[in-house]
Specification:
The complex is a heterodimer of chains A (495) and B (272). Chain A has 495 residues and is an alpha/beta fold. Chain A contains 20 helices and 16 strands. The chains are: A alpha/beta (495), B alpha/beta (272).
Chain lengths: 495, 272
């Protein structure tokens, strides 16, 4: 890896580019800011993207801030190890298509990652500017999005090279980011890859979960087309273990499986009244709107449009839900979160965008009970105030109940976004598979191999609820692990 | 795409569709259901599998016209293609040899009851089935049910067929007459509620199969949650069958009406 980075960095064009501008000049420039749609305008549309992206001039200027470090620590912060300086320097010299190619060397979904990755906690947190200069980091995420979008819009979408076909069939179960990343690497290695998806649409959480105002469907579709062009096959409406058993698929020639079926099981708080109508999981709410197009009249699936919508939770999914509620016409769209803004797991940008859009934040509040009208539809919620105590296991200050602080809030829709558990559907079909007491599949952290040798796993079914990019990192590791496993196995068989 | 290969109109609002889905025909078991989507604009509709034919690669579904989506499905014809169909979903019915099984089916609930009756009969049980509906033409699949039942009792609300009365009357007659070891019931929630109350009185273990509102059917959305024994369960992955004596039927009935206003609007739009 180090070797490869050095060879790339020593290329003459990179050397020339470094000499072109003095480091001092690079570091005195301000970080670019992202232009976004006007908040009052954008809340009228569920499918208008909020962030508008950089233009060529902004991108090149931002790219010139990157110092092309000898030791690029940013890459260490990237779960899929994108050669960050190489793609950024390609932007600086105006070779944006080359930059896009660089992204695709290791990432199956650059246009997605450029939008939804928490770069502030990953590559940008490890940027020289952040670590050493104590300045705003290079906007790696914005630049990634710029390069990926540029390529998508150019019509000249490059298809990464693939090794000669091996005639070895492997299956990926689920079609979210872990699976797609796995499929991208395996197809490059020459395997015959089929992705099995339970829903009618491929993309997993990228399609049913993340709303279009944050990640437009067409952006995901271009990345899926790329994979299809490379030879990845997609089977929709197919639940491995149910529609056909693992043994059936083995008989059909599949030699190994990558289980990335996600953490699809929504959690509830188990408080009184939680099963009243109008109280639903963020998964249900977002699936209806994103996957089923329920907000559009010409589609059959309904969605509850509330006037007073409370969303429980402080993560990205909670932000997606509450901003969706606003777009569906809620007068009052509220976040109810038991800790303070400081502890919120949501990306800072999402919280800021939500605030701009008029979302109310009732932090340090926790629901304790729901009440309904005579038809069983939720009409109000009782919450109690919290205060912060000593730090807990997560390092965040523990919320403590303020006794006697209960009060009621009128609501007609409540969206519970307090996290998800692993989906038991696929693991339950493999009784001999080793799972933790939380239901996650246990794997070797290096190879992602499970207790069944031909079975690898990654993403939320292993982590229990994480990010797109960590899932993608797992997919890459599993591909490497499975490749090694199959090479050894098939070599032994040949001898 | 999943082609409709056979269609039979059971009554004005109830249709039997035989659909080509070879993998599911092979892998389904009694109690399993599928989810289908007619076309791009369609809802995901959960339907229990009534029969399957492995050789022909088909599954049989029974659809009742109750809203915009089911109306569209009922209007489809032989040769038409259903865009999406996934399954089998849910837990299969726990079938074993227990002695005498009382099966109570109401309306279109008779369709999912059929493979369960077949399963219990094949497992060596004596099976007595009570079929109930509002009126004669809503008693469906009688011939098929008879094939796997030692005795069939028909009850209709209006007395147009069999005995006039409710399913519980027919069921209680059996319970008083002979020892019943287990009961299964599928039908409208209200019907299952009263069957459960009846068998609870006689302490007969009873399974009820719930027909909840669902979106994905794979555990993802939680729309189908029901209270069973004081705990929240997901009908799609924990069910669809539960211990009937522990189900909170009143909550279930309220939850089934959760989208009534939206459904009414859609109905009016579709028919305007």
């Amino acid at each position: 890896m180090k070797e490869y980075l050095k060879i790339e960095r020593d290329q003459e064009w990179r050397d020339q580019l470094r000499k072109k501008i003095k480091n001092k000049e690079r570091t005195t420039q301000e970080r670019v800011s992202m232009t976004s749609l006007d908040p009052m305008e954008r809340i009228k549309y569920q499918d208008r993207e909020v962030n508008l992206g950089l233009n060529m001039e902004q991108a090149q200027r931002e790219a010139s801030r990157c110092m092309d470090c000898v030791n690029p620590t940013c890459i260490e912060g990237c779960p899929v190890s994108i050669n960050i300086p190489k793609f950024i320097k390609n932007i600086e010299r105006g070779e944006v298509l080359e930059a896009a190619k660089t992204l695709k060397e290791t990432s199956a979904l650059p246009a997605v990652c450029g939008r939804v990755c928490p770069q502030e906690k990953q590559c940008e947190a490890q940027c020289f500017y952040t670590l050493k200069l104590k300045k705003e980091p290079v906007a790696i995420g914005y630049l990634e999005r710029f390069a990926a979008d540029f390529e998508q819009q150019s019509g000249a979408v490059s298809v990464p090279e693939t090794a000669p076909k091996k005639q070895v069939k492997v299956a990926a179960i689920g079609s979210g980011p872990a699976s797609l990343s796995f499929a991208g690497d395996m197809i490059k290695l020459g395997y015959d890859v089929t992705v099995f998806e339970a829903l009618h649409e491929v993309g997993g959480v990228l399609k049913y979960g993340i709303p279009e105002f944050r990640l437009p469907n067409h952006v995901v579709d271009v990345e899926l087309e790329s994979l299809a062009k490379m030879g990845v096959k997609f089977e929709r409406n197919f639940i491995v273990g149910r529609t056909a058993s693992f043994d059936d698929l083995k008989a059909e020639g599949y030699q190994a499986f990558f289980v990335a079926s996600g953490a699809g099981l929504p959690r509830f708080m188990n408080i009184p009244g939680e099963n009243y109508n109008g109280i639903l999981s963020s998964n249900e709410y977002l699936t209806r709107v994103n996957l089923m197009n329920a907000a559009k009249e010409e589609f059959d699936t309904p969605v509850l449009k509330g006037q007073n919508v409370a969303v429980i939770g402080g993560g990205n999914t909670a932000m997606d839900s509450v901003r969706t509620a606003k777009r569906l016409g809620a007068e009052r769209a509220m976040i109810i979160y038991r800790r303070s803004r400081e502890e919120m797991p949501a990306r800072v940008e999402e919280v800021l965008h939500a605030e701009e859009e008029g979302i109310e934040f009732l932090n340090l509040n926790n629901p304790v009970e729901y009440f309904a009208d005579e038809n069983g539809r939720v009409s109000k919620m009782r919450v109690q105030r919290m205060e912060l105590g000593e730090p807990d296991a997560s390092g965040r200050r523990r919320p403590v109940v303020v006794e006697g602080s209960e009060y009621d809030i009128p609501v007609d829709v409540v969206v519970v976004a307090i996290g998800v558990s692993p989906n038991p559907l696929v693991p339950s079909e493999l009784p001999e598979l080793k799972v933790s007491r939380w239901g996650t599949i246990e794997v070797d952290p290096e190879t992602m191999q499970s207790s069944k040798p031909e079975l690898f796993a990654g993403g939320d079914i292993v982590r229990g609820g994480a990010t797109v990019i960590l899932a993608m990192g797992d997919g890459r590791k599993a591909a490497a692990g499975m490749h090694k496993y199959l090479s050894q196995k098939n070599e032994t068989a040949a001898n | 795409m999943y082609q409709i290969v056979q269609k039979e109109q059971f009554s004005e609002n109830v249709v039997k569709l035989v659909v080509h889905a070879p993998r599911i025909a092979r892998s389904r078991k009694p109690g399993h259901f599928i989810i289908l989507r007619i076309d791009e604009k369609g809802e995901r509709i959960p339907l229990t599998i009534a029969e399957a034919n492995i050789e022909a690669g088909t599954i049989t579904l029974v659809v009742q016209n109750v809203g915009v989506s089911s109306k569209r499905l009922c209007a489809m014809n032989v040769g038409d293609q259903i865009l999406d169909l996934v399954g089998p979903l849910g837990k299969a019915t726990h079938i074993s040899e227990v002695g005498t099984v009382l099966a109570c089916g109401g309306g279109v609930g008779i369709a999912p009851l059929l493979p369960i009756v077949e399963g219990f009969k094949k497992a060596g049980n004596r099976v007595v089935t009570v079929l109930a509906a509002r009126t004669k033409e809503l008693i469906i699949l009688e011939k098929e049910i008879r094939q796997w039942s030692d005795e069939v009792i028909i009850m209709t609300d209006d007395g147009s067929y069999g005995t006039k009365g409710l399913v519980t009357q027919g069921a209680e007659e059996i319970i008083k007459r002979e020892k019943v070891d287990e009961c299964v019931t599928i039908g409208p929630a209200v019907m299952m509620k009263f069957v459960a109350l009846l068998t609870q009185k006689y302490e007969i273990p009873t399974q009820a199969s719930l027909n909840a509102i669902m979106v994905d059917g794979t555990g993802m959305c939680g729309a189908c949650r029901a209270s069973v024994g004081g705990q929240t369960k997901f009908t799609c992955i924990d069910g669809p069958e539960f211990n009937a004596h522990q189900i909170d039927f009143d909550e279930l009935i309220l939850r089934l009406g959760g989208y009534k206003a939206e459904e009414k609007q859609a109905w009016e739009r579709a028919n305007s």
